[in-house]
Amino acid sequence: KYGATQFDDITKQLGSRLIHARSPQAKGRVERLWETLQSRLPVEFARRNITDVSKANAFLQDEYIARFNTRFGIEPNNRNSAFMPRPKGINIDSLLSIRYTRTVDNSGCFSLDSILCQCNVPGILPKSKIDILINQRLGVKVFYKGSLFTPIPILDKKKRQVTGSSINTIIAQFVSDNCLKNEHIS
């Protein structure tokens, strides 16, 4: 059995569940889809002399998707919508954040990617577990007992005081170092 991921937790909180493609047949269907799209679309674009994103989007919307669905689409067994309303009290920005669990030290601080931050939670006790939420809308937040707090960065990797640095700068650096380090920009 697979361990729960953050995405598993998100779907549970939204009242949904994941159906994992564990069989080779199910995985094969997805792989064939991507192979079909990756090998066929560049040819279609070249045949039509499509060289920019707006023309590509127009071609996909006006012609290709309908033709692809006619050829490969399968009618569903049940035509009823599977969409559900969002459960009340769900904060989507919190839910769609990268989460890290940290332990507060004796001075009310935690470390995030070698940046020491004051957790900024009134009355928090040492050794308390907190969740750090990171996303572009929220920034970096401390989640503790159902509430969000904004941490205060104190020291960076080289033990220099962080003064005048915004939490957004720290987020950008954190995302760059940890989330985009394997991305290739051409």
Descriptive labels:
three-stranded antiparallel beta sheet, 186 residues, single chain, elongated, 7 strands, 5 helices, alpha+beta, 18% strand
Count helical runs: 5
The strands making up the biggest β-sheet line up spatially as 1-4-5-6
Radius of gyration: 23 Å
- The SSE order reads HHHHEEEEEEEH
Q: How many strands appear in the DSSP assignment?
A: 7
The proportion of strand residues reads 15-25%
Can you give a write-up of this model?
It is a single chain. By secondary structure, this protein is an alpha+beta fold. It has five helices and seven strands; from the N terminus they run H-H-H-H-E-E-E-E-E-E-E-H. It has helices at 6-13, 24-47, 53-72, 92-95, 167-178, and strands spanning 98-103, 109-112, 115-118, 129-135, 139-144, 147-149, 152-155. It has a four-stranded antiparallel β-sheet. Strands 2-3-7 form a three-stranded antiparallel β-sheet, with no helix packed on it. 9% of the residues are buried.
Care to give the gist of this entry?
The protein is α+β, with helices and mostly antiparallel strands and 186 residues long. The protein has helices spanning 6-13, 24-47, 53-72, 92-95, 167-178, and strands spanning 98-103, 109-112, 115-118, 129-135, 139-144, 147-149, 152-155.
